[in-house]
Amino acid sequence: MPVDAEYCPYDLDRDPGAHGLVEQWSRTDFGLLHLVRSPERTGDRATLFVHGVANTWTTWTPLLRVARELGEEFQDVVLVDLPGFGASRNRLDHLRSKDVGKALFDVVAGLGYTSVRIVGHSMGGFLTLDMASEPAFPIESVHLVSGAYFSVVKAVQEPVSTLFSSPALSIAYWSQGLLAHTGGAGVQVVKLAQKIGLFPLFLNGFAARPWAVRSSFTKSLAHDMRPKYFLLAAANGDHYDAIDRWSRIECPVHAVFGAQDKLVPPRDMTDLRRVRKDVHAHLVERCGHFAHVERPKETYRLLFPGGSRA
């Protein structure tokens, strides 16, 4: 099998300074929120990156590297660890989208920005779409990586029917619930699997080529796994009317989906297009749930067709 040099080409980087960024902690209702940002504000608009489950701000470093290599380095960026993830606290013990959105916008406003464009992955994409449906938030554009959670919302609301209609999706979703209910023991098993090189077994359905992903990525997933908070975030889907909420979004929406993603399958792209006929949605081939890590170059071009500063 020929080597695919474009698949997972970069390591995840935990050093903000490697990208010209600085760390900061901001006080929110959830407690101290950890973020990484541009050291200086050069304009009124921030680009806010919101990660998914088992991730932190570091998940976006491949995308930052692509922009830098193209001479289009992001300016005025804010990359957060969501409440309960990474170095951020969650003393409220919930992840209700309205409250998380308010906390994020308070952080951005506190940095002096008056508008924002949001880049969201997976759970972070769901939060992004929900924030964008609120007219009170000054969002200029939305950029999603596997972020249209139609299938996940259905799995939350109709678990039995989804198990029969979409067994692969149900397994991918409820595996997180199983880990949450096993407590620390389940997470320790996952971490052990990463240490002995078997973590790719857990990536079937999530990555297109589980055995080809970089060890820095699997190490990050194992270290930052928070199954409890996945369930807290998924609770937003209970009684949630995605069609009604997301049809209210007025700003431009750019979205990419992995052709081999089992958690947010390609049909979610079709559903998003039904809700927003003007959405710029693209399917990335030979890619799973982590397009910004698996195919960062193609993902960058599709999410930011005019470049990072457009």
UniProtKB/TrEMBL annotation:
Pfam families to which the protein is assigned, alphabetical: Abhydrolase_6
InterPro entries per record: AB_hydrolase_1, AB_hydrolase_fold, AB_hydrolase_sf, Epox_hydrolase-like
Highest taxon, organism lineage: Bacteria
One of the record's GO molecular function terms: catalytic activity
Example of a GO cellular component annotation carried by this entry: membrane
Sequence ranges assigned to domain AB hydrolase-1 in this UniProt record: 48-300
Gene3D superfamilies per the UniProt record, alphabetical: alpha/beta hydrolase (3.40.50.1820)
UniProt protein name: Pimeloyl-ACP methyl ester carboxylesterase
